[in-house]
From TrEMBL, chain A:
GO terms for molecular function: acetyl-CoA carboxylase activity; propionyl-CoA carboxylase activity. InterPro entries: AccD/PCCB, AcCoA_carboxyl_beta, ClpP/crotonase-like_dom_sf, COA_CT_C, COA_CT_N. This is Propionyl-CoA carboxylase beta chain. The keyword Ligase applies.
TrEMBL record, chain B:
Residues 1-466 form the Biotin carboxylation domain. This is propionyl-CoA carboxylase. Its EC number is 6.4.1.3. Keywords: ATP-binding, Biotin, Ligase, Lipid degradation, Lipid metabolism, Magnesium, Manganese, Metal-binding, Nucleotide-binding. The keyword Nucleotide-binding applies. It comes from the Bacteria. Residues 602-681 form the Lipoyl-binding domain.
């Protein structure tokens, strides 16, 4: 009997060693942790329950029958993050380079199916050389099965991908369909075709880091939502993100005890908006001063910085924030910022996360590059996302809300619940100068008259009251009381129920 | 007594004067420029009058504008504060002509003391010890060299109308004398509209010690002992204290009596300061007399209990001094630190902008000012005192147009050690965010052995921080106290995280007792035993630290007791830990579980990129012009590009010879701090 029990331990020890000490050392040498070490850091200590530790592949070609490592290059199971259940898979680069076989994929599919049934997020840790070439089409079928689960799980449970090594070729499309992708600086990369193929086909010389490193994907392509210094930090920050997210689409976002007065007055906000309408200010200051404990989890911090997206808590409850950033391009909407914000708004709507929108937008960015790039269709994404979102929506206009961009930014017209404006708000079709030059084209030669017309226009429209008279603004609020007003607004919306007409699914302008 | 006074100043000193006036039941009128529309002194005053655009030479120092404001408000008297018009005889004359009282000395005293050459002559005649030097007007640089040789190097070249270090140069040889003369002359012409220059012996081992005098219009005068202001940066005072740790009773008395003699010689009436330079053998020499309220007057108030502003107002109203010399004892010790919006890590570059957070430590009344009933605000009383004279507020702006001072933080203690310790804690409690500030630097000075022992000269900063200030390293004892506090704080935060909704019942996360704290290159494995009142943190060497305090997650200030002694941490967030500022040190503190710590050791250390061959943008701004091209060889000091920040053009120059290898900027680009503008081979 004892021998049988100890045999289990022996087999477990063998499986836990993955590709062996030498490969583990090599993995460490690259500044990377092993699949199991990563799970240790991702989950609460001792909470991991493993599935399929002894699964092996069934390939018999090219000598594969000689090496059948237990677990087949991926560690799967479930555990908890601060006591809340999550499912996890972690590819093991030390085992056959983390390559994806039919059985490797089947392990991932198994926990994804369970995640959907039990309503818990899936966190995938990617560190894989790609398809297991020896298996041929079986490996591809495996990928396909995983993709299909990603799609089916989308909007059902949150899916988070952490890229902690190579992720190339078709493999990228699994993370691509998850809600968030995080990368590790200097030790991860993602691309559809690698530098060698790029060189052969296009003669372009490019390194893996330049082609698909963390910097590329957080700043240029926007494929990744964030990047971290190393594995330890990345996994700690994923835990932090999970604390904000609901477990599934049937549950409300989490609530946790908070140490901050919901009615906290911030007098300094009364001077946040400068007197000169062309002078920028940092919208992040407002976000940090509204948030419980000044805690803000920013998403896509380095991309399209003219709009800010991320999570805060109000009264301990998660709120998604979308805010124009006057510090960058005057906070203008353009292709990139509209896409970035639209995806974030849709994520929040999927998972019942209320939306706070902070508006200071001078309009859409003009120019051929924007028009040729399809700003019409991309801008429409954000408009569409806000319009279809049925979660509680609270909007605060701090300064400019001009033209079509005003309508886009969670205006009353898109069924926002509370539309607040600061006294400094200007809700108008455009800035006074531009408006004057159109209305009084005939006086363009006379600077004095133009100045008077501009002033007249400013007096008439450069304020929140015209919109407030029409009920497009529910209330003009003092900046210093914004936290209290916004917190109370969301509190009043906790049982909001809003339904869209039945449809198979919508047809967002992709 | 006056019914209404106007304060012809701004910032903290205007606020300071308003406080006393209010206490005396006098209405106050503020004046303000466009830049100060929302300033604190405007809010505090009973009325406020706009006097023009931001630059001082178009508003605060335009006599006609100030006179118009006086007329409009009907103020009967004017307090000029310091700087601006405070020592302007023409202003005093204009006031006299308008029949408005000047809360300051008579015009004649301002005139005679305002000129360094005249003042020195008068001082000599009054029996005041003076520095050897040439008092006549100097025509040109060659004459300056000759005079310097006669006096003997080193010499000090000074603008006759100067002050605050402007138009002042030290020369050790003929070349420096020639150059110093010319630059002092230019600076004096630009700053004061008066390019007269004089030269005197430069005193070695110098300490700056000054005597506060107070005279009325009835021929009475007292001295309120000394202030030592030896801690200066480029002749700008940073730390002041009263009394001086250097003076003995006899020297103090001699200096005080000579100062009074000088005051009487010029018919002085009001508060004034006679500045001396004191050498290592306690020889003292007259430097100049400031015929105004000094920036550092609070330390004198704190040890004597005399409200100097109140006395100035009373003297201006013709009252007699209520005190005699024998009433003025030295009671306890007071220290002032000037907090400036200057980034100590960037060679004290002014860091103007928005104060996103500004929370000074709570004021505590103590010492003679409390006993004399002259404490300005209703602060609670305590063993040691904290006073903060400020003119800014959270959400306010440190403007480029004026002195970048944030506040004057003063502490009082029964003795010097108590005052220093109170200052350390008060500095730790001071929260400033949004701009760079010198809090870490002054905190470092408060812990510097030379300062603590009182062994300092005016060269203290130049000698102790020759390569600038690069932060404070905590000793092991202090480091462990910080580590213990951070471990306990982190644990509190982690426990809160486990209280999130949606947990699996009976399978909650248990927060452990074992933690690793990494800070300042050290790593400690600690065990935390928590109870209802706090935590006991045990270190591997068996030592234990008891941490108590009511810090909650997210609080940017942790006011703790570690082993019963205060430990105050300014707390910021970083992944897996805290950014901590305490005692002038700025630390990244990581608190990890044992498993995290074990695995963190495997993480590669990422060295910051070598910036020695790069030109980094020193401030957020707009590139106006790039002066060089790729491949060009540049010489040390050559202009590389111009960055405009807050409407000021800053020319960035090559630190050494090199060849430009890459340029990332072109005119019109906006750059953030530390963005790479160009690289060199």
């Amino acid at each position: 009997m004892k021998d049988i029990l100890s045999e289990l331990e022996d087999r477990r020890d063998g499986a836990r060693l993955g590709g062996g000490q030498k490969r583990i050392d090599a993995q460490h040498g690259r500044g990377k942790l092993t699949a199991r070490e990563r799970i240790d850091l991702l989950l609460d200590e001792g909470s991991f329950e493993e599935f399929d530790m002894f699964v092996t592949h069934r390939c018999t070609d090219f000598g594969m029958e000689q090496q059948k490592p237990a677990g087949d290059g991926v560690v799967t199971g479930w555990g908890t993050i601060n006591g809340r259940q999550v499912y996890v898979f972690s590819q093991d680069f030390t085992v056959l380079g983390g390559s994806v076989s039919a059985t490797h994929a089947a392990k991932i599919v198994k926990i994804m199916d369970m995640a959907m049934e039990n309503g818990a997020p899936v966190i995938g840790i990617n560190d894989s050389g790609g398809a297991r070439i020896q298996e041929g089409v079986d490996s591809l079928a495996g990928y396909g099965d995983v993709f299909e689960r990603n799609i089916r799980a989308s909007g059902v449970v949150p899916q988070i991908s952490v890229i902690m090594g190579p992720c190339a070729g078709g493999a990228v499309y699994s993370p691509a369909m998850t809600d968030f992708i995080f990368m590790v600086k200097d030790s991860s990369y993602m691309f559809v075709t690698g530098p060698d193929v790029v060189k052969t086909v296009t003669n372009e010389q490019v390194t893996a880091e330049e082609l698909g490193g963390a910097s590329t994907h957080t700043k240029k392509s926007s494929v990744a939502d964030g990047a971290f210094e190393n594995d330890v930090e990345a996994l700690a920050e994923v835990r932090r993100l999970v604390d904000f997210l609901p477990l599934n689409n049937r549950e409300m976002p989490p609530v946790r005890p908070f140490f901050d007065d919901p009615a906290r007055v911030e007098n300094s906000l009364d001077t946040l908006v400068p007197e000169n309408p062309n002078q920028p200010y940092d919208m992040k200051e407002l976000i940090l001063k509204l948030a419980d404990e000044g805690d803000f989890y920013e998403i896509q911090e380095d991309f399209a910085k003219n709009i800010i997206t991320g999570f805060i808590r109000l009264e301990g409850r998660t709120v998604g924030v979308v805010a124009n950033q006057p510090m960058v391009l005057a906070g203008v909407l353009d292709i990139d910022s509209a896409r970035k914000a639209a995806r974030f708004v849709r994520f929040c709507d999927c998972f019942e996360i209320p939306l706070l929108t902070l508006v200071d937008v001078p309009g859409f960015l003009p120019g051929t590059s924007q028009e040729y790039g399809g700003v019409i269709k991309h801008g429409a994404k954000l408009l569409y996302a806000y319009g279809e979102a049925t979660v509680p929506k609270v909007t605060v206009i701090t300064r400019k809300a001009y033209g079509g961009a005003y309508v886009v930014m969670a205006s009353k017209h898109l069924r926002a619940d509370f539309n607040y404006a600061w006294p400094t708000a200007e809700v108008a079709v455009m800035g006074a100068k531009g408006a004057t030059e159109i209305i009084h084209r005939g006086d363009l030669g006379d600077p004095e008259k133009i100045a008077q017309h501009t002033k007249d226009y400013e007096d008439r429209f450069a304020n929140p009251f015209v919109a407030a008279e029409r009920g497009f603004i529910d209330e003009v609020i003092m900046p210093h009381s914004t936290r209290k007003r916004v917190a109370r607004a969301f509190a009043s919306l906790r049982s909001k129920k809003q339904k869209l007409p039945w449809k198979k699914h919508d047809n967002i302008p992709l | 007594m006056f019914n209404k006074i106007l304060i012809a100043n701004r910032g903290e000193i205007a606020c300071r004067v308003i406080k006393t006036a209010r206490k005396m039941g006098i209405k106050t009128v503020a004046i303000y420029s466009d830049a100060d529309k929302h300033a604190l002194h405007v809010k505090m005053a009973d009325e406020a009058i706009h006097i023009g655009p931001p630059p001082a030479n178009q508003s605060y120092i335009v006599i006609d504008k100030v006179m118009a404001a006086i007329k409009e408000s009907g103020a009967e008297a004017v307090h000029p504060g310091y700087g601006f018009l405070s020592e302007n005889a023409k202003f005093a004359e204009a006031l006299a002509a308008a029949g408005v009282a000047f809360i300051g000395p008579p015009q004649g005293a301002i005139e005679s003391m305002g000129d360094k050459i005249t003042s020195k002559k008068i001082a000599q005649d009054a029996g005041v010890s003076t520095v050897p030097g040439y008092m006549g007007l100097i025509e040109d640089a060659e004459e300056a060299v000759k005079i310097s040789n006669d006096i003997g190097y080193p010499v000090m070249i000074k603008a006759s109308a100067g002050g605050g270090g402007k138009g002042m140069r030290i020369a050790w040889n003929d070349d420096e004398a020639r150059e110093g003369f010319q630059s002092s002359k230019n600076e004096a012409a630009n700053s004061f509209g008066d390019d007269r220059i004089f030269i005197e012996k430069f005193v070695t081992q110098p300490r700056h010690i000054e005597i506060q005098v107070l005279c009325d219009t009835h021929g009475n005068g007292v001295y309120l002992h000394e202030r030592e202001c030896s801690i200066q940066r480029r002749n700008q005072k940073v730390v002041e204290e009263a009394p001086s740790p250097f003076l003995d009773e006899a020297t103090r008395k001699a200096m005080g009596e000579q100062s009074l003699a000088l005051a009487h010689a010029v018919g002085y009436a009001s508060a004034g300061t006679v500045e001396f330079i004191v050498d290592g053998d306690k020889n003292f020499y007259f430097l100049e007399m400031n015929t105004r309220l000094q920036v550092e007057h609070p330390v004198t108030e704190l040890i004597t209990g005399v409200d100097l502003v109140e006395q100035m107002i009373r003297v201006a109203a013709g009252e007699k001094l209520p005190m005699k010399q024998e009433d003025l004892t030295i009671n306890g010790w007071a220290i002032e630190n000037r907090l400036y919006a200057e980034d100590p890590y960037r060679n004290f570059l002014p860091s103007i902008g928005r104060l996103t957070r500004y929370r000074p430590p709570m004021e505590v009344a103590a010492g003679p000012m409390l006993d004399a009933g002259t404490w300005h605000d209703d602060a609670p009383s305590g063993e040691t005192g904290v006073r903060n004279d400020t003119g800014v507020f959270e959400g306010g702006e440190i403007s480029m147009y004026y002195d970048p001072m944030i506040a004057k933080l003063c502490t009082w203690g029964a003795d010097r050690a108590a005052a220093i310790e109170a200052m350390r804690v008060a500095l730790d409690r001071f929260e400033v965010e949004g701009i760079g500030h010198n809090l870490p630097f002054v905190a470092a000075v408060m812990d510097h052995p030379k300062f603590v022992s009182g062994d300092m000269t005016t060269a203290f900063i130049a000698e102790e921080y020759p390569d600038g200030f690069d932060g404070v390293t905590l000793d092991e004892g202090e480091l462990k106290r910080v580590a213990a506090a951070c471990a306990a704080m982190h644990r509190v935060g982690e426990i809160r995280r486990t209280r999130v909704s949606g947990r699996m019942d009976n399978h909650e996360r248990k927060v452990g007792a074992d933690w690793n704290v990494a800070l300042q290159g050290q790593s400690y494995d600690v065990v935390i035993a928590a109870d209802a009142d706090g935590s006991t943190v045990r270190f591997p060497d068996g030592t234990e630290h008891r941490v108590e305090g009511d810090w909650t997650p997210g609080n940017p200030l942790a006011d703790m007791l570690v082993d019963g002694a205060p430990l105050v941490l300014k707390v910021g967030k970083i992944s897996g830990g805290f950014n901590i500022r305490t005692r002038g040190a700025e630390l990244k503190v990581h608190v990890r579980s044992p498993r995290q710590a074990e695995l963190a050791k495997l993480m590669p250390e990422k060295l910051p990129p070598d910036t020695s061959k790069m030109l980094l943008c020193p401030m957020p701004g707009l590139i106006v012009k790039v002066d060089v091209e790729v491949g060009q060889e540049v010489q040390e000091g050559q202009a590389l590009c111009t960055v405009e920040a807050m409407k000021m053009e800053n020319i960035l120059r090559a630190e050494r010879k090199g060849v430009v290898s890459k340029i990332n900027a072109s005119a019109g680009d906006s750059f953030a701090v530390d963005d790479v503008i160009m690289e060199f081979e």
